[in-house]
Amino acid sequence: MTAKALLLAGSVNAALCVLLGAFGAHALKARLTAELSDIWGTAVQYHFYHALGLLLIGVLALHWPASGLLRTSGGVMLAGMIIFSGSLYLLTLTGIRWLGAITPLGGSLLIAAWVLLCVAILRS
Fold first, then answer.
1. Predicted TM-score of the model (pTM)
2. What is the pLDDT of residues 87-117, one digit of tens each?
3. Which residues form the signal peptide (predicted)?
4. Domain tally for the chain?
């Protein structure tokens, strides 16, 4: 991913976090159990942290444009966000519990993305 693509993905995802957080707090408030509301909150929280992470990686990619590892970190982080938060959003909206089994895969990708970022920084 290019620096511009990382910055765009980070900013679009940050906007989605605000939208989905408001949707959960207002439109879903009366429809969700306390447990499902907590799950939605976790999805938004991790989504937002990693949207900021994408912005950070995008800024670093402007400074180190030759770092393929840095760009890989961003791609892995984006995939992790989609799988982690996406599975929790879907679980909350549909009640399909097996979606929770997918969530740790997304979490593993998020961890890998941060580790890749560390390695990219050390190599730069």
1. 0.94
2. 999 999 999 999 999 999 999 999 999 999 9
3. none
4. 1
